[in-house]
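Quarterly update from the structural biology core.
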Amino acid sequence: MKTWIFTGLCDKRDLMLSLCALMTSAGQKVLLIDATLEHRYRYYSGNSDYRQTITEFAGFDLATGFEAFEHINTQLSHTGEDCMHYDYILCDVEQTNFYNREQWISAEEHVWVSDYDRLTIDKSINWFEQWYQKMQAQDKATFVPSFHLTFIHTIDCSLESQYIRSHLDHLPIAWNTEIVTIPWTESDMALKLENEYAEKLRIRPLSRLFKKGLCELTGQISGMENKEIKRALKQAERKRA
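Predicted structure, tokenized:
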């Protein structure tokens, strides 16, 4: 089992759902955990009343309504299973107490996801500082987390990703590899809204630029070959949740 933790106070549902669909099409058993403050994924799981549920969606499992990772294992134990039977666990984390320090460190990959909005950047910095204090309180040993950095919903403008990242340079973070940028078109936004209301996931109509960024991020954090990623993407495009 490998764990990928995604942070950053922006709506990253379109990225997370697409990434899970791609990994599932690559033959992996995937669990997506909604640990956002507003339980953003509940509309895809039919869990509008915030119940703790694990449901199948688009070929992968989606856990919503939980406030700690241990609660998910408890839920799975009712059917004689645990998180170890998944190949990958992807978690969209906004709750600072969802994982303890040991669980954070043991995760294979950490990805900071943000858009270019200044308020999003500032809110994410404040979140990180609060989270970091809690991690240090659990153990005084030096702790410098490593993150990949991905910008989503980007548009053509004079701002560059390196300049946006400079606003994060004061944080105790070791940044990994190159910055991934995933542009957003009007058609991508329309598809996100349509998927949300239909409680379905369609990959094929995504823009070429979005798919290119998705494949780049997948390669960074999974180590999969580009050919394998593109093959999985084509398979995901044929599916319809």
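The two ends are 24 Å apart (CA to CA).
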